[in-house]
Write a structure and sequence with these properties.
With about 190 residues, the chain is of the alpha+beta class. The chain has 5 helices and 8 strands, in the order βββααββββαβαα. Helices cover about 25% and strands about 25% of the residues.
Length: about 190
């Protein structure tokens, strides 16, 4: 086994698909152990706590971190998030900058020199939210190792997924991620 390979881990991604190509992607990311940490659903409405508010803010900040990426419908649930990401798949060249203080010309190391993949975006989102939430007192916070994604192929599918996301708090009692449903043996 080569370094970096893990036994019994299989990719959930579509083989030979370029996840940096322009398109819309639906993602679901769950907390480690599906523990409810982001607030609660009350009367069909999600009430975010401080950690949930941090997650919400970071999601909406993704377009600043990744030019060419737009966020769409999004919801923070007690133990997971659902969101739609639009990837523009454009090349973003690093800017040439000159340091007045050192007199040395250099490239801006913070720029992206290729279109980000969905994996790049999710990885950054998970890393930043994990760091922020741990800094604010939840030292053991973490996300599940992987995430669910779905390539959105047409407007009808996009509209249906948007409705699913917006209505997710209303359906919390039936949600497969709801801890009470695990106890009852529901999917």
């Amino acid at each position: 086994m080569r370094a970096g390979q893990h036994p019994n881990r299989r990719s959930l991604r579509l083989k030979c698909y370029d996840y940096a190509q322009a398109g819309a992607y639906f993602v679901t990311i769950c907390t480690q152990g599906r523990v409810c940490l982001f607030g609660e659903v009350v009367d069909g409405e999600m009430r975010l706590n401080a950690a949930g508010a941090m997650v919400d803010a970071e999601w909406h900040g993704l377009p600043r971190r990744f030019p060419g990426v737009q966020t769409d419908a999004f919801v923070v649930m007690p133990n997971h998030v659902h969101g739609i990401i639009h990837v523009g798949a454009r090349f973003i060249a690093p800017e040439f900058v000159s340091s007045i203080q050192t007199g040395v010309a250099d490239y801006d190391t913070g720029a992206i020199n290729r279109a980000p993949t969905v994996g790049d975006i999710v990885r950054a989102f998970k890393a930043v939210t994990t760091r922020r939430i741990r800094q604010h007192g939840m030292a053991n916070f973490g996300w599940q190792r992987n995430y669910y994604e779905h390539i959105i192929r047409n407007e009808a599918s996009l509209d249906g997924i948007r409705a699913y996301i917006v209505n997710n708090p209303l359906q919390w009692a039936l949600d497969r991620e709801h801890p009470e449903n695990w106890k009852r043996g529901k999917p």
